[in-house]
Write a structure and sequence with these properties.
By secondary structure, the chain is α+β, with helices and mostly antiparallel strands. The protein is built from 6 helices and 4 strands, in the order H-H-H-E-E-E-H-H-H-E. Strands 1, 2, 3 and 4 form a 4-stranded antiparallel beta sheet that branches. Strand 2 and strand 3 form a beta hairpin. Helix 4 runs antiparallel to helix 6. The longest helix is centred in the middle third of the chain and has 28 residues.
Amino acid sequence: MEEADLAIAGPKKSSPVVLIVALAVLTLVAGGGGWLIGGMLAPKPLSTEEAKIVEEAKAAVALKKAGQQKAEGEAGKKDEGLPKIATEANGVVQLDAITTNLAYPTENWIRLEVALLFKGAPDVAMAEQIHQDIAAYLKTVSLQQIQGPRGFQYLKDDIEERVDLRSEGRVTNVIFRTFVIQ
């Protein structure tokens, strides 16, 4: 008789406590995964030395713009941007624009303008060698390698590594001014 009563009543209902615990565990797992992915994707904070260099560069650009605006008001000259060869004061050398076709597909072209931040006095001969090395490297890159933000980051890392090897540590930063794919 008892078996008949159990068959009619059906299976036991689960407790709401079990549901709440399962929901809490899943929430913690999802939060931990989000934190982990966020840590991998977030940009690394600048060191104090890098932050100081960035602030000095911003101040130099602001000062230069103020001087150019004053000169434009007096003489009506156009904005020339950074000089090709910078002074020893800031150690920045802007390289000529690099325009070349990609390895695949060859119909696509890339234009890249970079500036080099030297440790100490800039070396023009070394800057020209670095310019040629970057141009030669860009001819070996395919469009699939540089698509999207990850591709650009890989390209930037590769160029910075090549510059570091070529300059033997004399170039402390590579500043990307323009990057266009057509």
